[in-house]
């Protein structure tokens, strides 16, 4: 068995026996033990009582975190003409049409969010098998297929987070950095959990939100009291 380092051992000891904490206590614990040499991301994992193989149990959505993510989000936009210029003016990192499609087909994906105008979807549709598994496929339900590309780019750059349930019924998201003030992380976490709660699908049966855990990139996770996790 691999020998645990001092930092890992100390973190595990600090987390031992602690579960179902308040959001505030969980954030304080995670921040206190985020001791890596870089600014760790604070990550949230929400276990849901859904089977996403059924269309009426799919959970997806978008939420604007009140304090941003702390991450520099690279945005690609499929657009032509004035809309392409609008996207560039709003701060998009990559703008294109067929040329961008060919770049992606060639294996280069150097962006975190993909936005498209509706007329570009026949081109973007050819990339479904590449972008879909990476949760990068533009979708009108989360505002990434739109004529208002400027607002979409600004939202993506400003801390908007998309979420989509995975096969195992889990939603993952980065909700800030360990360097954030505790109050800002708490606010972000509550906003995210609230958004997932409101996205409950019609086909969900029984307990919808089973478990919520928070961790830092290199640290252990701790569970949050689900009944007191939203901002409501």
UniProtKB/TrEMBL annotation:
The record's Gene Ontology cellular component field reads: cytosolic large ribosomal subunit
Q: Which InterPro entries match?
A: Ribosom_uL1_bac-type, Ribosomal_uL1, Ribosomal_uL1-like, Ribosomal_uL1/biogenesis, Ribosomal_uL1_3-a/b-sand, Ribosomal_uL1_CS
UniProt keyword terms in alphabetical order: Repressor, Ribonucleoprotein, Ribosomal protein, RNA-binding, rRNA-binding, Translation regulation, tRNA-binding
Q: List the Gene Ontology MF annotations in alphabetical order.
A: rRNA binding; structural constituent of ribosome; tRNA binding
Q: Which PROSITE patterns match?
A: RIBOSOMAL_L1
Instruction: Provide one Gene Ontology biological process annotation.
Output: regulation of translation
The record's section on Gene3D superfamilies has: 3.30.190.20, 3.40.50.790
Q: What does this protein do?
A: Binds directly to 23S rRNA. The L1 stalk is quite mobile in the ribosome, and is involved in E site tRNA release.
> How is the subunit organization of this protein annotated in UniProt?
Part of the 50S ribosomal subunit.
Tell me what this protein is called. Answer: Large ribosomal subunit protein uL1
Task: Write the lineage as a comma-separated list.
Answer: Bacteria, Pseudomonadati, Pseudomonadota, Alphaproteobacteria, Rhodobacterales
């Amino acid at each position: 068995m691999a020998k645990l380092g001092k930092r890992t051992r100390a973190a595990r000891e600090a987390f031992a026996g602690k579960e179902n904490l308040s959001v505030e206590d969980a954030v304080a614990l995670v921040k206190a033990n985020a001791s890596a040499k870089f600014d760790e991301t604070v990550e949230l994992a929400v276990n849901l009582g859904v089977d996403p193989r059924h269309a009426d149990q799919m959970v997806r959505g978008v939420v604007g975190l009140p304090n941003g993510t702390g991450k520099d989000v690279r945005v690609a936009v499929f657009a032509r003409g004035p809309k392409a210029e609008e996207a560039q003016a709003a701060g998009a990192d990559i703008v294109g049409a067929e040329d961008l499609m060919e770049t992606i087909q060639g294996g280069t994906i150097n962006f975190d969010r993909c936005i498209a105008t509706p007329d570009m979807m026949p081109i973007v549709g050819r990339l479904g098998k590449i972008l879909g598994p990476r949760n990068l496929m533009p979708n009108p339900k989360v505002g990434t297929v739109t004529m208002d590309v400027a607002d979409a780019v600004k939202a993506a750059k400003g801390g908007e987070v998309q979420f989509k349930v995975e096969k195992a019924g889990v939603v993952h998201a980065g909700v800030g950095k360990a360097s954030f003030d505790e109050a800002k992380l708490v606010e972000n976490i509550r906003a995210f959990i609230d958004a997932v709660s409101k996205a409950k699908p019609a086909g969900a049966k029984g307990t919808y939100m089973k478990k919520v855990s928070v961790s830092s990139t290199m640290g252990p996770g701790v569970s949050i009291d689900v009944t007191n996790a939203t901002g409501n």
